[in-house]
Amino acid sequence: MSTSTEAAGASTDKDNGAAAEKPQVQLITITIDAIEITVPSGTTILAAAKMAGLHIPTLCDHPDLTPIGACRLCMIEIDGQPDLQIACTYPITKPLKITTTSAAIRTARRHIIDLLLTDHYGQCYTCKRNNNCELQCLAAEYGIDLLRFGQTDSQKYPVDHSGSLVFDMNKCILCRRCMRACNELQNIGCLTITGRGDQSRIATFADKPLTLSACIECGQCIIRCPTGALTEVDQTDEVWALLDDPTKHVVIQTAPAPRAAIGECFGLEPGTPLTFEMNTAIKRMGFNAVFDTNFSADLTILEEGTELLLRLQQALAYKNPKANLPLLTSCSPGWIKYIEYFYPDMLDLLSTAKSPQQMFGTIIKTYYAEKKGLDPKNIVSVALMPCTAKKFECNRPEMKASGFQDVDFALTTRELAKMMHESGLDLPKLPKTVFDDPFETPTGSGVIFGATGGVMEAALRTVIELVTSKKVEDFYAHADIIPVRGFEGIRLLEIPITEVGPVPELLQHLFADFEWLKGVTLRVAVAHGTVHIRKVMEDIKIGGLFSSCHFIEMMACPGGCLGGGGQPIPTSPEIRAKRAEAIYSEDASYAIRKSHENPQVLQIYREFLKDGPCGHKAHALLHTTYTPRSKQ
Prior knowledge:
This protein is of the alpha/beta class. The chain has helices at residues 5-8, 45-51, 103-118, 134-141, 177-185, 236-243, 256-259, 275-284, 293-317, 333-342, 356-372, 389-394, 413-422, 444-447, 454-468, 530-541, 573-589, 599-607, 616-622; strands at residues 9-11, 27-32, 35-40, 75-78, 85-86, 97-99, 165-167, 191-194, 201-204, 230-232, 249-254, 289-292, 327-328, 379-385, 409-412, 490-496, 521-528, 551-555.
């Protein structure tokens, strides 16, 4: 089995002509506020100012998006030019002398802020973005102490509460960040500008509610909106009411990505892990038990990994042309909505395995209820997730395998942080508390689900060992499968299977041997952000490179779950990278780093899912369709 980067994996974004000489970049020296700085030709003045350590205010610019100069706040003076210029879109092509602050600049910026506030409906103290609103911050920064041009006293537009997102255009400042995130990052395009002049506003195409548009509820618009025009549906009051109800047994599962981010809501640097401090806070808030979604992530790997082997068996051993390869992961609810909207004819490629959130919901109201002697109708199952689409997922009508709604509430990282603040809990200062049994053992494979490539890496750690009977460390140092890590939009990995071992006991109900895999080159890929997912799906449709893959991880959000729409605001490539570092650091710290070695997962197969992964009971509870599996 190859372990070299050249043989084992490559990014599709790499330049195929690596040997060709790169063109030389022209460097230009400019002066900004008496600071000399040399930058490549074409660098914008705003970017150059950041390099020089200078702050120029802006409301429309965002590190993930293409500059458009919509808000006009980043005005600067250029020596020799009579008018103020826009820093975010002005390319440097010759030496310039630039001033970023003056009486004229300050006056112009204050007028813009005044005008934005005039058309901005609502009071800051009732807004979800209070104390985390860029418009509010700039108003304070520029000393806006009265509304010079008045303020609208009524809502101009109805508020859309139709889905997991709240769409309030009365607070919109027309920066177009939401529209650009939807178009550029996600390539969905359900948002547009309608009207002209003072009637301009953001709307869906055909001006329908979000739930009747192509919105996948990923929330990428929310985490780039500078104001409170876009937020998630807040369910904290409903959860508080149930926590106060003595007849209810309220439990919560916590996903990996929030742990690396929730500290940002308490003033900590991105990437500060607070896994076990968070457990303490949750118990003090009144939850009866706190569980680790890592458990059901490991369960997902056993089910989805087995499903992959079954489909490979159909294709390779039985030569079945309808084996439905490549197998596409099904963990990301935004991605599921995406394929349902845009590629409904390719749904057969999806794994039938539910997401870790939904698997855990089913297990809590069946296995856990039996083990603890609880009536499942009195169990309230809450999930802490980095994702707004998880709210939609838990309310899907098919998610009732337990006989009840499997997951009752999905709270975002921001919502749980709000509940902690309401409880007077200073999260970073709390002691550590372990997870509750019978799901208390965390694994490294479970935690890396939070980063793009993590599902694939966890699956490969398990599948390689189950198939070859060798340790994955024999092929990848420290079990770190580096080629699937990183933030390239699409990654590809090839793994030649040169030897196979005996079928482990866990899978003997499905396979007699793995000889049909010997000599096969396993091709896997990773894509994150639906702009990249679209490229992969279109390539599969035409029989391109990715149609020859066997397994592809799809995550709707840039960076995977750590970049989810329910994570703390703001977001940027640097912030997401720090969250990823925390996730991989936590993975490395765990004694157990492979899903098939999780003792609680193995126990549940012995005690409850007795016919094993992809068996009858597992399919009935943990998959979205029931398809009996047996040896052929």
